[in-house]
């Protein structure tokens, strides 16, 4: 099938900055389920590579370099979608 | 850190982590004060919309320069609340915003205050680089995701104020 415009643009942005994407079916547990149920396409994405998963755990942290790299990744994705 | 924008981004992240939006009694009002002043700083439109008793959403909007009303918008969603903590198990205070060896500690550092700040700091940089958006971007901050979203996103999505956003595509947390 033909990919949607938003997936094409999202993927293009990731390719531009050489980030590898593993796509998975998202667990139906976050707010994006309400969006999808109402017909709004949604991707679940948090730019946190090289980070132990500590959601809901103690000593939850994010390294500042990963955090700052994430801003650059969003710049690329947002530009791809809105410009 | 290399520059002033990086320092600003980390400082805003730390400030947001220090606001105790922890279930079951999140301090949402302090978060909305923070977001409103953030909107002013970035010159974004700010709306605070009531979705239930003591429950609101905030929308920080970067308006398109394209006048076409039909152009669908980009929605960048994040939730404000975080899950509870067992503070005695933490090496550093979960609401202290401490940075140790480059690691920014705090409840919400991954889920998902990082993402809310990253959206806004990305917009700061694009504005500084003089980008002109062809689509409007809405950064939406919602309550109560961690308790199922029924009193947050689930309410808001049924409202005219949501429909008026004319959303074409959305990003939300992943892992």
TrEMBL record, chain B:
Keywords: Hydrolase. Signal peptide: none annotated. One of its GO terms (molecular function) is aminoacylase activity. This is Aminoacylase-1.
